[in-house]
């Protein structure tokens, strides 16, 4: 048996508190990290260790729940029991946590043995998702399910308004942050180790954003040139808008729209830090705003609200507390946005429909339905599926459509 020499006992309380935030308060995991990490002065390695243990437990919650012999993860004792099950799964001695004694070593072992061949549980997949994945992806599902249970890599996107990827890499190195350039992804770097990225001067000065590889493909797929009129119609806090502005080299006009004001406020702050000055935000309060922009844009991005099932590595809590109630009504919203907002493109203009989902129902089936109803007014130029299993990234879908009439 290996020794548990990596997890100091004074971390147990923080791990349990993070699990408690997510399982009992239903907080997003990121919010909990932010809350705990901004209160404590932790080294990058310690923070990395806390992220890796809590992320792992939440990505495979049903596995650790069964190892712990828990019928309910909603109880006060559950976080400690889940952490103990995690120790058992490492084949490490299982400590008392929060004064709670562990189960018998033989009990853990027999549960580990009985789950050995249960791929669904070992991949941390709840029944509803297993059914949905099988129905929608068929034979492709087991490999996607396994890929979605992996820890996410730390990808960042260089802000080309500030410098090149090579310059960013050098600046990061000067702050003792190691990274690698990814030749086939021109704006991306992968960060090595647990370095405190967000405390770096580069980050404060807007040299990069944390953004998954797959997500970085979306603005590139829309490919606006400088001087164009571009609309990011579901801009949220601006992940893609900032990338679009950099691709446009701050020249031309970029309108970032959303139905939520607080997101647009965050977007404005991020844009200021990134040195973006060709962007204006617009809150969508009624369909009039969309109608006023009819036939006007060279490029329109529709990064629509979706199930988020492509980004479960990053947001594992969504497996246990899905962000959507009814997939059919979500698809209806997506189709409505696609049909109404695509008219903001002028004839000859291009529209990208994108989701962070791996479900055909939200992706290629939506585009096929749209094209059928468009009756020749739009044509499909290209489609791209970014599969977690094939690309070792989050999962995304994008379709590029041309306005023909
Ligand atoms: C997938 S998120 C966008 C993420 C964002 N593009 C980014 O890169 O950070 C979808 C966004 O659509 C917005 N939304 C939902 N319904 C909408 C609607 N009818 N019109 C415009 N935006 C909408 C949501 O508020 C959310 O911010």
UniProtKB/TrEMBL annotation:
Molecular function per GO: RNA binding; RNA methyltransferase activity
Highest taxon of the lineage: Bacteria
One Gene Ontology biological process: RNA methylation
Active site: 356
UniProt keyword annotation of RNA-binding present: yes
PROSITE patterns, sorted: SAM_MT_RSMB_NOP
Record's keyword terms, sorted: Methyltransferase, RNA-binding, S-adenosyl-L-methionine, Transferase
Residues reported to bind S-adenosyl-L-methionine: 258, 303
Domain SAM-dependent MTase RsmB/NOP-type, residue spans: 144-404
InterPro entries: MeTrfase_RsmB-F_NOP2_cat, MeTrfase_RsmB-F_NOP2_dom, RCMT, RsmB-like_ferredoxin, SAM-dependent_MTases_sf
Similarity comment: family membership: Belongs to the class I-like SAM-binding methyltransferase superfamily. RsmB/NOP family.
Record protein name field: SAM-dependent MTase RsmB/NOP-type domain-containing protein
Organism of this sequence: Oceanospirillum multiglobuliferum
Origin organism lineage: Bacteria, Pseudomonadati, Pseudomonadota, Gammaproteobacteria, Oceanospirillales
């Amino acid at each position: 048996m290996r020794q548990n020499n990596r997890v100091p006992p004074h971390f147990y309380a923080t791990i349990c508190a993070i699990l408690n935030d997510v399982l009992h308060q239903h907080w997003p995991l990121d919010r909990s990290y932010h809350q705990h990490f901004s209160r404590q002065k932790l080294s990058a390695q310690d923070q990395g260790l806390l992220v890796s243990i809590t992320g792992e437990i939440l990505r495979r919650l049903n596995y650790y729940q069964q190892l712990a012999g828990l019928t309910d993860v909603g109880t006060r004792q559950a976080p400690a029991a889940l952490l103990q099950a995690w120790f058992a799964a490492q084949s490490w001695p299982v400590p008392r946590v929060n004064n709670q004694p562990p189960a018998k070593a033989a009990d853990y072992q027999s549960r580990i043995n009985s789950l050995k061949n249960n791929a669904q549980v070992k991949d941390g997949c709840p029944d509803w998702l297993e059914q949905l994945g099988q129905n929608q992806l068929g034979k492709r599902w087991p490999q996607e399910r396994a890929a979605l249970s992996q820890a996410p890599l730390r990808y960042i996107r260089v802000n080309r308004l500030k410098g090149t990827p090579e310059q960013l890499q050098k600046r990061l190195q000067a702050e003792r942050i190691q990274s690698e350039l990814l030749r086939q992804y021109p704006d991306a770097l992968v960060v090595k180790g647990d370095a405190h990225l967000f405390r770096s001067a580069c980050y404060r000065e807007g040299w990069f954003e944390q953004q998954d590889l797959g997500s970085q493909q979306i603005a590139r797929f829309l490919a606006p040139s400088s001087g164009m009129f571009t609309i990011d119609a579901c801009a949220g806090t601006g992940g893609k808008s900032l990338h679009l502005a950099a691709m446009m080299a701050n020249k031309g006009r970029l309108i970032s729209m959303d139905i939520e004001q607080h997101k647009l406020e965050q977007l404005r702050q991020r844009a200021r830090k990134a040195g973006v000055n060709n962007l204006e935000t617009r809150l969508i309060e009624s369909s009039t705003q969309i109608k006023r922009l009819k036939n006007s844009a060279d490029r329109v991005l529709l990064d629509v609200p979706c199930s988020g099932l492509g980004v479960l590595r990053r947001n594992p809590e969504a497996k246990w507390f899905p962000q959507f109630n009814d997939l059919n009504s979500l698809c209806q919203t997506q189709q409505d946005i696609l049909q109404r907002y695509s008219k903001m493109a002028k004839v000859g203009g291009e529209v990208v429909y994108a989701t962070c989902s791996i479900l055909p129902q939200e992706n290629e089936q939506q585009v096929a339905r749209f094209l059928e109803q468009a009756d020749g007014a739009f044509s499909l130029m290209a489609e791209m599926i970014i599969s977690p299993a094939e690309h070792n990234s989050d999962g995304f879908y994008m379709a590029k459509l041309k306005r023909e009439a």
